Batch of 3 targets.
Target 1
Amino acid sequence: MASQPTITVLYFAAASTATGLTEELFILPETPFPLSTLASLITSRHPNKGLEKILGTSSWSVNAEMVDDPEKTSLRGGEEVAVICPVSGG
């Protein structure tokens, strides 16, 4: 029996604060899995944490490469996906 495909999601800044985690393992419900739907998978695991807004303004990286268009990126398992929250400075 083949093992289920998994990804590691890394949380930074507001996403880490909201989830209380710096990283988390997810089993992909299907492969290929569109990166554009990962936010809904994360928020379903962490309801009522305000993640919809945080993830809606965040950028994504897959295996340390920034993603320009999440709609065109698919996950197959084994990837490390980082949630890059916007930051402000002064």
Target 2
Amino acid sequence: MNTTPNEHGITHLRHVDLAVPDFATQRTFYKDTWGLTEVGTDGELSYLAAEGSPEQYIVRLRRAAEKRLDLIAFGMDSTASVDAFAQTLAGRGVQLVGEPAALQTAGGGYGFRFFDIDGRTIEVSADVETRRHRPIEEREAIPVRLSHAVMNSTDIHRTRDFYAAVLGFRLTDTLYTPHMGQVMHFMRCNDWHHSLAIAHGPHPSVHHVSFEMRGIDEYLRGTGRVLQAGTKKIWGPGRHTAGDNTFTYFLDPSGNTMEYTTALETITTDEWHPTVYDVTQPGVQDQWGIADPFSEIVAKDSFNDPDRGVFVAPPV
């Protein structure tokens, strides 16, 4: 496997936290349709876990008047790395939301939050309690874990450079179109092809959040269940070339794009050379050739609403 860890000790994607006006509807969607398990509530917060993941939760919902991304959370390998990283960020002029301290959310731990270059709140943490989890059974069509998060940016090269230079993420691959140039950068902090990707969009916002299924059969069964529940499908089923993973994209009740996926590629050598894929070429967006052709209509669904949380830290 990849022998070069993240230079700052960032290990993996922990959870994505969303604020939503339709809190009750979203809770029902993620529990009953999407297949997550609500493991706790705290006032107007809902913590949702994946049965196959040791993370305390992978999605946090917060009732709010306005829809927004509250934060993206990444794990770190030690509290010492958390402290050192806070000093590194401060020395580079990155705006910290708070100093490293004990976390007050489910699972506890030690960490801090800061704004990335687009104004998203990012949390890093270590020593978070793990959750009792279990292997997902054959034909059990529920998420195993959180796979990756993709964010829209008006300047994907600047955002890529921030995550590479400041957070130590590495570029894996890039998508390109002849008339728009480069439109998405895939970035990794561990062996997975990407834990984060940056997509070209008209404003900072959530592009999509992806959930790993047990295998192809469970991925397709889950896709069918979500379709039968009346959820709007944006695109899929299909299989990308960059990352080699399957995809079906849906809109949740708040208009955030969510993806079922499986079989995401892992990087097995340090000598990885990023590829720039022309998405207009057959098979690049969908190796199987069964998904509808990618179009501006598909892209527009994932532009999402302008994020109201830019450079505004969530209250919890």
Target 3
Amino acid sequence: MSDESLNQKCDLLLKEPEIRFAGFLDMMGNLVVGSFRKGLEPLKNETERKKMFVEAVLRIRTRQDFDENLGPVTYAAARRKNIVTFTFLVDNKVLFVSAEPNVDIDKTANKILNLCSV
């Protein structure tokens, strides 16, 4: 997928009121494309976000060790006090999404899957 196509998917996700951030990461944890919803104050600075992105990619790579027996992971989510984060493996990129803390994880994940045609 081209960066423009990935960027369009992020823009589409950011139109949803519960989505705070949408971005695609390469397999080294670098942000390829993505941003926060307009007018939103990030909870973490850029350095902390980079650490979070690297950790998300490492978790996805570790989970892949179990794909043969258990099947691939559709998505992973973490509910924290102030945010819910989602990760999805899309081709050779990781879609990283953060949402408001009160979302229904399964409904939001399915919405993301549908909007991004994952």
